Amino acid sequence: MKGRESGMPQKEMWETFFDPKALLKTMGIDNRVQDVVEFGCGYGTFTIPAAQLIRGTVYAIDIEKEMIEQAANEAAVRGLHNIKTLLRDFMLEGTGLSNDSVDYVMLFNILHIERPEIMLNESFRILRHNGKLGIIHWNHDPATPRGPSMNIRPTPEMCIQWAKKAGFVKQELHDLKPYHYGIVLKKGDSK
Ligand SMILES: C[S@@+](CC[C@H](N)C(=O)[O-])C[C@H]1O[C@@H](n2cnc3c(N)ncnc32)[C@H](O)[C@@H]1O
Q: Which superkingdom (predicted)?
């Protein structure tokens, strides 16, 4: 089931809202990271630079065939062989990845959809011990040029509370100017 208000505007417009490589570095994605999963990769705005920064594989999941094709095509054009695209509904089917098998999960612009705990519990399951969860989302401010409706747009405090409930420990909060915030959490020892 595709999450509410998770469609994308035109790629050209979407990509004016971020500096993806700089944002990823701030969020702790660099060459010390092995394998990464992105829930809802969209055009691959963050998938592509993540694959260029890390050592292992980026698993890019999306429910939309068109998004998966665009991300895969972009990877091919750039000669990147460490992106594995997965056409899949992560709400109904999960990620299909093994327990304790990845180092970083990206939940980028997605935690406003229904049942955020499903994504957070699945993230906790697939992350290795000391693995990281990165959440970014639109500022809780109606003046942002895009973003989900304010009544479903989570605040950083809400995201942190949900993630802690899933077992994560908060590490960092970032102001990702101009329109986003970022939260980095760690998979703690036990739930
Ligand atoms: C707002 S976009 C964010 C894309 C990307 N993370 C970014 O920040 O550029 C959300 C993406 O999640 C995908 N999506 C929504 N519900 C999904 C589901 N249940 N399973 C897999 N993908 C889903 C949408 O198709 C869309 O491409």
A: Bacteria
